[in-house]
């Protein structure tokens, strides 16, 4: 599978013949100033929760690409009211089949509100099973024992975890989460964007290596095979 990183928690995965985009926050991210959202393709856009740093560019990209937008009920309702017609709800516990494969929505431990302060439902993550492989995106979350249930439904080949600490998991919690999910490969996101989530990349990679794990930290705009 190919994974392209666009900064913060925004990335896309090419799997099952489709491009699946997550949590578009680009135009408001100074670190991603060289990324042109008009060049980002998407067949699907999955939203983990309602915070501005995960939804800012959803409408612009969805309108241009025609991508199907998915999120919990409140996210579905929010984007429907913003004029998106190709949008569907999926809540934790639910599973849905698409042309690229299947997706299970799972819980995340995190706050969630829209930019205007209104309720955005609960935060969530997603587990994907496609003909090209399987993966888990936890969304913004702290470590939770519920992660141990992930392999009971779909065994991921890799996981995408936030590792910036303070607002989400840090390095050590992400290492523990990898054990819960039974993956050896992790892609780290949600770091460096703000002053209070700065990451020491060398320290992070060494910690994962010491735990027998592989941590990938692609550069913004970089595409990796995973």
TrEMBL record:
The keyword Manganese does not apply. Keywords: ATP-binding, Hydrolase, Nucleotide-binding. SUPFAM superfamilies: Metallo-hydrolase/oxidoreductase. The keyword ATP-binding applies. One of its GO terms (molecular function) is ATP binding. Residues 7-190 form the Metallo-beta-lactamase domain. Belongs to the UPF0173 family. NCBIfam families: PRK00685.1. This is UPF0173 metal-dependent hydrolase LZZ85_13545. It comes from Terrimonas ginsenosidimutans. The lineage of its organism: Bacteria, Pseudomonadati, Bacteroidota, Chitinophagia, Chitinophagales.
């Amino acid at each position: 599978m190919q994974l392209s990183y666009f900064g913060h928690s925004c990335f896309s995965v090419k799997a099952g013949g489709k491009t699946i985009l997550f949590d578009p926050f680009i135009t408001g991210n100074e670190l991603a100033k060289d990324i042109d959202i008009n060049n980002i393709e998407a067949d699907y856009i999955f939203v983990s929760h309602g915070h501005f740093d995960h939804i800012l560019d959803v409408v612009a990209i969805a309108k241009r690409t025609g991508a199907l937008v998915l999120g919990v009920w409140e996210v579905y309702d929010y984007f429907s009211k913003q004029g998106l017609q190709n949008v569907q709800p999926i809540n934790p516990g639910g599973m849905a089949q698409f042309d690229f494969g299947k997706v299970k929505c799972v819980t995340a431990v995190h706050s969630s509100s829209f930019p205007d302060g209104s309720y955005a439902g609960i935060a969530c993550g997603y587990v994907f099973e496609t003909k090209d492989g399987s993966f888990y995106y936890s969304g913004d979350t702290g470590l939770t024992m519920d992660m141990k249930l992930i392999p009971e439904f779909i065994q991921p080949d890799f996981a995408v975890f936030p590792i910036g600490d303070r607002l989400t998991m840090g390095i050590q919690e992400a290492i523990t989460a990898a054990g819960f999910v039974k993956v050896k490969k992790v892609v780290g996101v949600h770091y460096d964007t703000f002053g209070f989530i700065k990451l020491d990349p060398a320290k992070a990679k060494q910690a994962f290596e010491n735990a027998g794990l592989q941590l990938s930290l692609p550069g913004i705009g970089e595409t990796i095979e995973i």
